[in-house]
């Protein structure tokens, strides 16, 4: 079965970026001049996804609006002969079919995914977290879809992390079954370093079979009083099986201030109109430090 739908949870309050996110959704903070969430949607579309399901909360309507047509702006750009800019915003409006589902009571990532149940129906789907950017010639979601198609099991994206960062992530254990692919037998949400099964962390991308909804409905609130997606996946793993995939690409945590700055510099360096001046400026800064 082909994977046609993607869920993007976007109901968080973005408190790490206050005061900037008091009125502006954190997902719309730009990496250079492109909102973070647009990179996420583009990854999904470039991976073959046809329908995007945003899980939003109060004050997040601007996210869906960003992917809609803006007739007044489009007309103005046309009149001014700014055809390149016009094409860029038309491309955004035509990326994919968009659906918005309100998460009225924010109770964690697991609950956010569960909110998409009626829209997803009985088919596998991708989950992409809006804070995680992965830069690679082959989109991270495409890599994972290929793994899903080969093994027929749900897939979690994995990345090796430093020992001190282990308590910040869901951590897995298992054994290698192919290059970068692991059959998982353990999942623990934010364990202590001493009890962690490895330093392989789950990060921001999942391919989930629809059976996950049954496990989410049965999952009780865990750490922080939230319904943890990792807890539901761990129970599903024991019955349905689960694989982990150590993806190819550079990951940026755009939900962290330093990671956000890293992403802006890295993506700026990919731009011909910016890179030469950015390089010169960074050399200047290093000299003066």
The helix tally amounts to 11
Which overall shape is indicated by the principal axes computed on the Cα atoms?
globular
| Name of the CATH superfamily of the largest domain | Spore Coat Polysaccharide Biosynthesis Protein SpsA, Chain A
Uncertain stretches: none
- As laid out across the biggest beta sheet, the strand order is 8-11-9-10-12
CATH class of the largest domain: Alpha Beta
- As for the number of domains, it is 2
Largest sheet: 5 strands, mixed, barrel
Structural classification: alpha/beta
Keywords, please?
289 residues, five-stranded mixed β-barrel, Spore Coat Polysaccharide Biosynthesis Protein SpsA, Chain A, alpha/beta, 2 domains, 36% helix, two-stranded antiparallel ribbon, globular, 13 strands
How would you describe this protein?
It is a single chain. The protein has 289 residues and is an alpha/beta fold. It folds into 2 domains: 5-255, Spore Coat Polysaccharide Biosynthesis Protein SpsA, Chain A (Alpha-Beta Complex); 256-289, no CATH class. 36% of the residues lie in helices and 25% in strands. The chain is built from 11 helices and 13 strands. It has helices at residues 36-46, 61-66, 71-79, 83-93, 109-114, 117-120, 140-151, 212-218, 229-240, 257-268, 275-288, and strands at 5-10, 30-31, 34-35, 51-56, 97-102, 125-128, 132-135, 154-160, 170-178, 181-189, 200-208, 242-246, 250-253. The strands form 3 sheets. It has a 5-stranded mixed β-barrel. Strands 2-3 form a two-stranded antiparallel sheet. It has a two-stranded antiparallel ribbon with strand order 7-13. α3 runs antiparallel to α4 (83-93) and α8 packs across α9 (229-240). The termini are far apart.
């Amino acid at each position: 079965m082909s994977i046609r739908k993607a869920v993007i949870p976007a109901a968080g309050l973005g408190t790490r970026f206050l005061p900037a996110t008091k009125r502006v959704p954190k997902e719309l903070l730009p990496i250079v001049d492109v909102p973070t969430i647009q990179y996420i949607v583009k990854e999904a579309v470039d991976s073959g996804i046809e329908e995007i399901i945003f899980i939003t909360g109060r004050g997040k309507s601007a996210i869906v609006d960003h992917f809609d047509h803006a007739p007044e702006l489009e007309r103005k750009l046309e009149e001014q002969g700014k055809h390149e800019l016009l094409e860029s915003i038309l491309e955004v409006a035509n990326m994919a079919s968009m659906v918005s589902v309100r998460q009225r009571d924010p109770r964690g990532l697991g609950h956010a995914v569960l909110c998409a149940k009626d829209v997803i129906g009985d088919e596998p789907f991708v989950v992409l977290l809006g804070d995680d950017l992965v830069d690679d010639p082959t989109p991270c979601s495409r890599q994972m879809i290929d793994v899903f198609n080969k093994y027929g099991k749900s897939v979690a994206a994995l990345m090796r992390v430093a020992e001190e960062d282990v308590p910040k992530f869901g951590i897995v254990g298992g054994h290698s079954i192919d290059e970068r692919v692991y059959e998982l037998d353990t999942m623990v949400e934010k364990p202590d370093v001493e009890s962690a099964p490895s330093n392989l962390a789950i990060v921001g991308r999942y391919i989930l079979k629809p059976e996950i909804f049954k496990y989410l409905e049965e999952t009780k609130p865990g750490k922080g009083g939230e319904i943890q997606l990792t807890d539901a996946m761990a129970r599903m793993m024991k019955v349905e099986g689960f694989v982990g995939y150590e993806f190819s690409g550079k990951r940026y945590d755009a939900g962290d201030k330093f990671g956000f700055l890293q992403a802006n510099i890295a993506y700026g360096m990919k731009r011909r109109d910016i890179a030469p001046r950015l390089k010169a400026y960074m050399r200047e800064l290093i000299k003066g430090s």
